[in-house]
Amino acid sequence: MARKRVTLSLFWRTFILLGVLLGFGIFAWVQTFRALEFEPRAVQAAQQLASLVNLSRAALRYADSINRVTLLKTISEQESIKLQPSEKADRYEPFETDRFTRRIGQELRSRLGPTTIVATSVNDTPGLWIDFTIENDRYWLQVDPGRVQAVAGRTWFIWVSIALLATILGSAGVARLINQPLKQLSFAASRIREGEFESRLDEETLTSEIREVNMGFNRMARELAKVEEDRAVMLAGISHDLRTPLARLRLEAEMSVNDEEARRNMAADIDQLDAIIDKFMDYARPGEVKLVPVHLSSVVDREIAAFRDTNQIRIVSRVAIDTKVMADDTELGRVLANLFENARRYGRSANSGIARVEVTYARTGPWVIITVRDHGAGVPPEKLPQLTTPFFRGDAARTAATGAGLGLAVVEKTVMRMGGTFELSNAMPPDTGLIARLRLKKAP
């Protein structure tokens, strides 16, 4: 079983690629900033701590015992610094637990001496504690640990989140600006595909490549409109020029040919030529169709009534009377007439020589599926896709080539003009016959 491929619109593809690119850029920027910020911040913090220790050491060294108490009290009140003697029984927790704190400890020892101790708590009292000596006496200096803290993870998270949000919004805006001209081009191309040649794109846009594409598209639309206009005029002329001599031939045959059988054969040939002209005109008909709610059963019954010869074809309709579809009444009638005619010619039963045709319907969501089935021999599976190709005939059709090979091609083109789909299939064995399915929008 083939795996279903995931498809993305051009907007989402551009948005995702821009988002991934900018996201990696933010990640790389954060890592670079942290690497560049790490060393200076650690050294600066160690310098500040070493300066506090040196100032405290100098102050205590040159103060007598009476003033030393006052000095310690003043330092504690004004600088939030606490000094106390160090005892051998003191318990402490090491400060150096990660790369940042180890770098601070290394810098402090290089400035204060190799015996310097840095701790996060002393005798279960938290803080940033630094052990130093004054004339062979050891002291603990306690400072606020916030002096040496790195940027908190929460701060990084907030800033990175803001950057990612800005990246998402910026990517969406850039993707929209990039894809807007392409979206307009796609919309204009779809209108041309539906036969509307009035679409015009902006030829004053600042982007040179888009401007050239728009100018080329507008030029193409003008040429197609001119071709369509010339084709309509040519078809009208061909129809008139061919039918006028055909009418004269019919009149001359009726008046000049005495043999009844020859006159009947000539009239049949003229009718066949006239029918072939109709097929060409139907296939080349312009693509604009005005869709309105149409009673499906009424159109089916009207077209069934045109096939009165029960020795050749018998049609049964099982379409509910309240079924409505969005279609053009005339075009839908032409579609059904072509399908009935195709069944009359090539869907006859081998036993009775009569084409038995069934017309049914089914509602599926917003669609109505119309099924026209005969009980003939069907078509080889490999030839089913070719039946809607203009001028293609199956084997049975070649042996009795009375048409132009455009009937099913006209059906497919007309159904597509009405916003529907058309498909052909063979009946499942042991049954035989060709099944035609038309899917049209359900009328409100």
From TrEMBL:
Keyword Glycoprotein: no
Residue intervals of the Histidine kinase domain: 237-444
Domain HAMP: 176-229
Superkingdom, taxonomy of origin: Bacteria
Annotated keywords: ATP-binding, Cell inner membrane, Cell membrane, Kinase, Membrane, Nucleotide-binding, Phosphoprotein, Transferase, Transmembrane, Transmembrane helix, Two-component regulatory system
Keyword DNA damage: no
Ranges annotated as spanning the membrane: 12-30, 156-178
EC number of the protein: 2.7.13.3
Membrane disposition: Multi-pass membrane protein
Listed Pfam families: HAMP, HATPase_c, HisKA, RisS_PPD
Catalytic activity: ATP + protein L-histidine = ADP + protein N-phospho-L-histidine
EC top class named in words: transferase
Listed GO MF terms: ATP binding
Protein name as annotated: histidine kinase
Record organism: Caldimonas mangrovi
Source species taxonomy: Bacteria, Pseudomonadati, Pseudomonadota, Betaproteobacteria, Burkholderiales
